[in-house]
Amino acid sequence: MKSKVVIVWVLLFAVACNKSSEANKQLQRQVDRLEKQIQDTYTPGFGEFMGAIQTHHAKLWFAGINKNWQLADFEIHEINEVLEAIKKYQADRPETKYIEMLRPSMDSIAKAVNNKDSRLFKITYNQLTVSCNNCHRQTHFDFNYVKVPDEQIYSNQEFKVE
Predict the structure, then answer these.
(1) Mean pLDDT along residues 74-78
(2) Model's pTM, two decimal places?
(3) Taking Cα atoms as reference points, which of 77, 82, 79, 73 lies closest to residue 56?
């Protein structure tokens, strides 16, 4: 009788192990499938992020010179969001480590905007532009020279406060 009980327990254990092994295989297939999906997920490249910064940099200028402080503040936040996204999604790029060199200029222009100081805005905007170019120089992208916009290209947006 004892041997039959032992045999039943051994068989139950074997069946349980087999089911556990199959469940593990199924889970591993699911993990593999999810890892593949993550690898195939689109992530913007460094250039796309820089293009977004360029857009917000230009809009920041036109908002500031038109004393649209609310829009200028918004554009500062947008630039900061892109900088954070670069650190998150482009962490493996060597250029990413230079992003922090923009922080002092971003902080300075934010103070000018918060104080609604047009004179200081122009000074700090120029400092931000220089910081952008210094970053490009440090990362060997100095062929990509940024300047203060001289023409408003967003004909579908009003920058003047009414």
Answers:
(1) 98
(2) 0.78
(3) 79
